[in-house]
Amino acid sequence: MKSKKLLTVILSTIMTLLPASAIYAAGPIGKKSKNEPQITTIFWEQSKEHKKKSTTNIKEKKFNNFNDINEFFKENIFKFGLKKGSLKSTKTLKDEDGKTYYHTIYQIEGIPVYYGRIVFTTEKDSTMSYISGRVDTAFENESWKNKIKLSKNEAIEKAKNNITYEKLHDLKVDLYLYNSKGKPYIVYLVDLVTDTGNWNVFVNAENGSIVNKFNNTPTIINSKN
Predict the structure, then answer these.
(1) Residue 220 counted as domain residue
(2) Are residues 20 and 131 part of one domain?
(3) CB 2 within 8 A of CB 17
(4) Are 89 and 101 in contact (CB under 8 A)?
(5) Among residues of the chain, what percentage have pLDDT more than 70?
(6) Domain count of the chain?
């Protein structure tokens, strides 16, 4: 009774808690979470057939590279439960079976959303087999580029002055849209590799205040046999 011509579109808020009949339903492949109203969960799996007619041509389409995926995403942005934006490639991996894993991050006005990772998996024949991700949608209703008042160099100095260290080994700075405790910010994420740890400092790009910071250095726990 399964049809090879039909698309399975999966939308789920908490996928592990939903019954199969609810998870594998045709329709948009993104839906806002009831428990987390600023989060859209995106999930689609080709192998889960369903009798309902698909709302996109995803099953028949070939995705040969990231650009094909990004164009499909932009053309069907509302099907993903989003209003605007595009994707940025973060890495592309292939396995021994010929599958390709396109790791992407959602961006608005060309600025990546910190909590906006989506992975697209294609088969050896370039057909889409799996999509999974969670996107923070708190930034869709505002313009962000015109809010930037701080330069990268100024953000770096703000971050340096907010941590204690003697030697700086490396640094990296990138612009992000970052949600902290339900409030959206445009920030510079300043990564500082120092003698006291690998620090991630989120500097408000509007006024230079520190939105958040944490030390990414792994903690080694000694255990006795």
Answers:
(1) no
(2) yes
(3) no
(4) no
(5) 76
(6) 2
Question: Is the Cβ–Cβ distance between 152 and 114 less than 8 Å?
Answer: no
Both tokens of 216, joined, read: 């990414």
Asked whether residue 181 is domain-assigned, the answer is yes
Residues 20 and 129 placed together within one structural domain of the fold = yes
CATH of the domain at 188: 3.10.450
pTM of the model: 0.80
CA nearest neighbour of 72 among 128, 6, 22? 128
Range of the domain at 62: 15-136
What the block records as the tokens of 29 is 């492949």
Residue 64 lies in a domain: yes
Q: Tens digit of pLDDT for each residue in 23-68?
A: 333 434 666 655 565 889 998 888 764 444 555 678 789 999 999 9
**Model pLDDT, residue 34:** 57
CA atoms within 13 A of residue 131's CA, in its CB half-sphere = 29
Q: What is the pLDDT of residues 147-181, one digit of tens each?
A: 999 999 999 999 999 999 999 999 999 999 999 99
In angstroms, the Cα distances linking 64 to 9, 71, 125, 131, 174 are 21, 12, 9, 15, 29
Rg (CA), the chain: 20
Measured CA to CA, the distance from residue 110 to residue 223 in angstroms comes to: 46
Is 8 inside a domain boundary?
no
Distances in whole angstroms, Cα of residue 58 to Cα of each of 2, 9, 106, 169, 200: 17, 10, 19, 46, 38
